[in-house]
Amino acid sequence: MTPAAGTALRTLIFVSSHGVISSAVEAAIEREFSWLTVQCVPDLRLLLAGFDAEAQLIVVDFRQMAELTALHPEIARHHPAAHFAILIDEDVRYLASQLHEIDTGMVRGILPLNVNLDVLLSILRILLRGGECFPGSLFKAARPVVRIDEVAAVHPAPAPNIPPAMPNAPPGHEVAMLDLTVRELGILSRVARGQQNKIIAADLGLSEHTVKLHIHNIITKLGVHNRTEAAVLYLERANGATARAIAARLDGGSDAPPLSA
To answer: Which of 151, 183, 216 represents a domain boundary (last residue)?
Structure first.
């Protein structure tokens, strides 16, 4: 997609081995974020030089985390406007014993590659806006080794003395998702597709104030901090048993478009 005239290009830099970020993913990112150009470099030291367009976000392969810690001050001097994130392309259970190495004061979030494209783009959108995103599903897998004070804000620990979950019961966020009403699910699905409140209100024949109230209730029920986190959670649950349960709730209604495949 060609950026609008006068739009200042920024760079999204992936620091990873060749082929980790496919050309199809690069193209999808540049279509979604028309002001960005995507560049992939294999080595952090290559960031100690200028780029044609100012770096807005630098996503570093987890395998280079130790080197990022050492070089971060110098890289930040060369790219003062850039935020940093960590790229994970392996099973998080394999990396769980190392997740505590992530300095949440230095990086804004984690970008997992083992998610569908909608989720990946949603996480990038959060990071590009200067937000933080540590997907709850990653920390759930790594909970035994992650410091609670680092992740409590985005993945609260369960209260003590809670009886064990029933066999086959969906995890906490899935239960919360299924507690949403049909109307709330319809609104959340549209939020996840990037629709603004006024568009949602017009589509559903509601006032904008009513839509805001529904979104407030959704955020409260899901235990997240804002609509973007709620949208990412919805997209993360857009496959499998939870998606089928949500579809069953919506069967015969018109509040929500189909979930992403």
So the answer is: 151
